[in-house]
């Protein structure tokens, strides 16, 4: 890692698995921290999830483990536990998603490690907060989506209970973990002391969902049921045109005035149902139906050109396969290619954030245990 990266000089021991923890650790690694991924001899399960051109280097593993070193330690064995504890003693951050009831027997509970290493930032990523009745339960993305309201929102909008087609809870909670680990490091710079940071997926996803969807229940007594009406409206869909579909989002009063004039219905701009944010939110179903009636009359290209000219937000609908051909992503150099001697060319989505106009570098994830000897020797352990 180059010394100019924001987290250069920090060392992170990442004993997490699957997606939430590894995604959080990948952000720390992208930003320049030395992240040492500790795996069992069997490896993280994501090494075998998705297509691969080499066993143990599957697509999902590549997605959340770049820029890290890979070490194998069997913590079920006493010398393995001692080795991990030795590495933690030299680190700034220890992060894991092991269930809390397993930790004391391994000497990995926060009280033991923080007492031994007061400057350590200890990050526990769990399904649920430990102090509640769900504490210690296992959890995966599907479970959290159901319990945190995601599935209920889909049912409310579409009539069908279903999951978001992505690891929404894992990735959201991973970002939350990375942010709060960095906050603890920043605090340590002032106090000299580390912190125990608990990041529960359930509470994290509920907080994320309720930013807009707590809605009328911000107030006591409630002024409206939960659920931002515009977003859960059944007619909040891509707009069908004469030859396809587009995403169309007039938002401000000026956007809507311009749109109504352009479609030959200027009287709607002064209609009390549609002339304010409050009115439009309360009449979202009717408004979206009206928009859909107009967009059917012209082609997608017509609407995209019109919206561009009127500065109304609009865009095409890309499939996942379209993204690598998107002209904007090409122009900004978003996708990055890595040449691997065994796997050939491997594509990664780039780090989306620029520092001083530069995209941060990406390096291939390591094979299982590839860095074990080098890391342990550098930590001061003997060759034996």
Q: What can you see in these coordinates?
A:
The chain has 384 residues and is an alpha/beta fold. It contains 16 helices and 13 strands. The protein has helices spanning 20-30, 59-64, 78-89, 103-106, 110-116, 141-147, 150-158, 168-191, 201-213, 229-232, 253-262, 277-282, 284-295, 300-310, 327-331, 372-378; strands at residues 11-14, 34-39, 68-72, 93-96, 121-126, 195-200, 239-240, 245-248, 314-316, 335-340, 344-349, 354-355, 358-359. The strands form 4 sheets. A 6-stranded parallel beta sheet has the order 3-2-1-4-5-6, with helices on both faces. Strands 7-8-9 form a 3-stranded antiparallel beta sheet, covered by helices on one side. Strands 10-11 form a two-stranded antiparallel sheet. Strand 1, helix 1 and strand 2 (34-39) form a beta-alpha-beta unit. Helix 8 (168-191) crosses helix 9. The radius of gyration is 25 Å and the shape is globular. The two termini are 29 Å apart. The mean pLDDT is 96.
Overall residue-averaged pLDDT value = 96
Task: Tell me the total number of β-strands.
Answer: 13
Total count of helical runs of at least 4 residues: 16
Radius of gyration: 25 Å
Biggest beta sheet summary: 6 strands, parallel
